[in-house]
Every structure is written in structure tokens, then in C-alpha cells.
């Protein structure tokens, strides 16, 4: 637990700084291109999301699910895994290069596929952005490949801290854009080739630097990687079999996301669309990345070791402890962020009215924050046992629900039940409901495999956290109203939105901790211990 605590603190601290600089990056980007009711902002969001989709496939799909457990196993090889990692890196780099070239060649088709609701001029702008952004695929992939290898060797810091450099590069580039051209430039006709090159080129340069900086830490692994095209003999066939199901799973997710995006593109210029959903997701991912990834990543490495050794009782213990530890933070974050939804959304919008529209999207996403934290643990337990087939099937159910609810939302628009300004929020709510169904199925399937997971115990803990979080959220909402609500100063600017969110969060936290202490929740001591590791001088 001490080792996991130290690793969690290191990852968490890096993630906090990364997310804070990422927020600043987002604020500057909104000043450049807008968010809600911004056709140009939606065009850039669509183009810049394309390489991110491939990154999701590589990182969440292949590396986390397959390569990390295999690298852990490879450490027992006579050479410490050097031959294995050399072959994997060579193969991965070749695949990344080919994918990047092909994606760039078909950029117009990709943009049209993802955003059929755009006007011809908006499609043309998005395509031009895409030509600049798609080379990010190679560097996102290298960042994921090197970073996950470092994680597997228990070198957690660089992978977490490298995005900060990316954010700094982006902030500088976007700031230069504002200095030269001003903003926000929300209309398609406002954009010149020089503007496009500076904005999208800066975004890509940040990813290049983010990947490159990891190579400076490679020597700490003790591994000497060289190009090796002899891809047979060290278990790559096993990786291929595992990755087959993983790629099918991620492909299903990408198809669902594509169809969802096609629906949301219809709202561009009339309400929250691609850009606004992206920023709402960024807010949603703040607690997820800080809490779930910082605590869950070290647990996953330990859980993989226990699973590989056949210590199933210890795996079940890892599951319960990690869910309870994640839960004490995630439940609070869900309710506190809900109370601060409007000022938090104001950080990435250009007016109070836009913040209110975007807040509905954020609230819809927040419905799934607690279930996704549980899913993180359950799904990675399957991965630790080299089972990527089962996650494919329960993810397929989730994808089907995402698509069905997205087109159901569009049906509500066509029937005049809701306006286009609420389309993105209803689509996001459908995605959250799909995630809830997914985690229920996944937990049931894992329990069939491992036996009792102590589900009742950690559900009881989560319920206790919720009971403490409800009055905490009420206190936060009361503070928001006392500060003027949507018409008050907390929604008057991006900076004041951040300040207001912090005040609401602190008020909610004080009430939450008080109720946990009243309930004598044992997880409070664990949470306090983890927080102390972030303090200066603590280890």
C-alpha cells in the first residue's frame, strides 16, 4: 500500500498540474475559436479529435489491455524482456507510420464521415485543419507506447508529467495567435491559411514535444531497445490474439462515437455541438484522470502481478480496495462538479447563457462518473487475466445503447420535443446510461469468473459516500445561489468561473468530510493518507 500510495501521489500530482495547464490551454483556445454556437470551433474540434480517436484505440485498446500485462510477464525472461520490447516497439512504430499516412490521405473522407451536418465551407475548413492535425497519430502512439512501457516498469512520473509540456507549447502558440489575429473567430469565413497553420500546427507541435520528452527517461528502465523486425518467437502471436478482441472492442466504440458525432454535428451553430461536448468531457475527465488514473494505474500493475501469479484472493482484495479508495474521491467529485456545473462550464464558453447551455451537457456526462470508476477496475481485471474477449461483448452492448440513444435524441428533435440546443445534452445522457448498463454486465461476468467480489461490501461503501455527498452538493449549490447563480459574478468570465467553482468545491468538500466523519467511514483515513502524500515534504 505504501508503494501504491507513493505512485498514486506522483501520478496524481502530475495529473493535477497537467489538467490545470490543460484548462488554461482550453481557455486560450476558446478565446481563439469559441465553443458554443461556433462553426469554426466545431470544425477544429472535429479535426483535432480524429488523431485522438486513433490514440484512444492505441492506448486504451492495445497498450493498456495487452502490452502492459505482457511486459510485466516479460520481466521474467532471461534478458529481462529486452528482445520482447524491441520487437513490440518496432512493430508498433511501423503500424503507427502506416496508419498516419493512410489517415492523412483520406482526411476529406474522414471529416465528411464524422460531420455530415456541416456546410460545405465548414467541411472545407475542418478538412484543412485535419491535414495539419492527423500527423499527431504517430506521436500520440509513440507517447502511449513508451509511456505504458515506463508504467509497466513502475516508472510512473514521465508519462504523467509530459502532457504539461504539451500544454505549455499550446498555450504559447495560441497566445501568439491572439496577439497576431485576435479572437474569438467563430465564423468559417474569418479564417485564412496563415491562421489555420498557426492554430493546428501549434496543436500538433505540442504532441510532438510531449512524445519526445519521454525518451529522455528511457535509460531508467535498464532496457536497450533496437529495431527488430523478427516478430516471431517471443509471444507476439499471443499479443495478436489478445489484441484481436481489443481492436474489435475499440472499433465498436469508434463506430458508436462516429455515429454519435454525426448526430451532434446537426446542432453546430444552433447550440452546444462538437466543441462544447469536448469541453464538457474535459471537465468530466478532470476528476476521472486525477483520481481514477492516479490511483488505479498503480493498482493495475499490482493486480496484473497477482493475476499472473494465480493469487486470485489477492486480486479480489485489490478490486475491493481500489473501488472503495476511488469511490471516496469520485463520489464527492461527481456531486461537487454538478453543483458547480454553470461556473465550471463558463471556463470554456464566452457568455453566461452559453455556460448554462453547456452545463446541461456536463451534468449529463456526470451521471456516468461513478460507474466508469468502477468499470476501470472491473475491465482491467479482465485484462490482467489476458481476457480481452469478454470486455468486447459487454462493450458492444454499451456501444449499441450509445447509438440507439443518439438517434433517439435526434428523433426527439425532429418531433419538436426538444430543441437543437438540448441535442448534445440528451446524447450525452444516453452515453451515460449506456455506461451504467455496461458496468452492471461487466461486474456480473467477472463475478461468474472469480467468484464473490465482495460486491455488497463496496456497494455499501459507495452508498455511504453518496449519503455524504448529497448534503455536500446541496451546500455547494446554496453557495452558488448566494453568489448570484447564473446571473452572478461566477458566470461573468472564465477566470471568475474557475474561482467560483473552487469556492463551491471547497464548501462541498467541508460538508462531505464532516458527514464521512459522522458516518465513521473507514475509507476517510485511507483518503486522508493519500492526500497527505501530495503535501510538500511528504513521501
Please describe what this structure looks like.
This protein is mainly α and 539 residues long. It has helices at residues 2-33, 39-74, 82-105, 107-114, 120-133, 136-152, 157-181, 193-214, 236-264, 274-308, 312-339, 341-346, 352-366, 369-384, 389-414, 423-450, 455-482, 494-518, 523-532. Helix 9 (236-264) runs parallel beside helix 15, helix 11 crosses helix 19 (523-532) and helix 13 packs parallel to helix 16. It is globular. The two termini are 13 Å apart.
Q: Give the strand content.
A: under 5%
What is the number of helical segments per DSSP (H or I, 4+ residues)? 19
Give the uncertain stretches in residue-range form. Answer: none
Element-by-element helix/strand order: HHHHHHHHHHHHHHHHHHH
Average pLDDT number: 84
Radius of gyration: 23 Å
Described by strand count, sense and barrel closure, the largest sheet is: none
Content-based structural category: mainly alpha
* Measured distance between first and last alpha carbons: 13 Å
What is the 3D shape? globular
- Give the tally of β-strands: 0
Helical fraction: over 70%
What oligomeric assembly is this protein in?
Answer: single chain
Topology:
Blueprint: H1 2-33, H2 39-74, H3 82-105, H4 107-114, H5 120-133, H6 136-152, H7 157-181, H8 193-214, H9 236-264, H10 274-308, H11 312-339, H12 341-346, H13 352-366, H14 369-384, H15 389-414, H16 423-450, H17 455-482, H18 494-518, H19 523-532
Helix pairs in contact: 1-7, 1-10, 2-5, 2-6, 2-9, 2-10, 3-6, 4-5, 5-8, 6-7, 6-8, 7-8, 9-15, 10-11, 10-13, 10-14, 11-14, 11-17, 11-18, 11-19, 13-16, 14-16, 15-16, 17-18
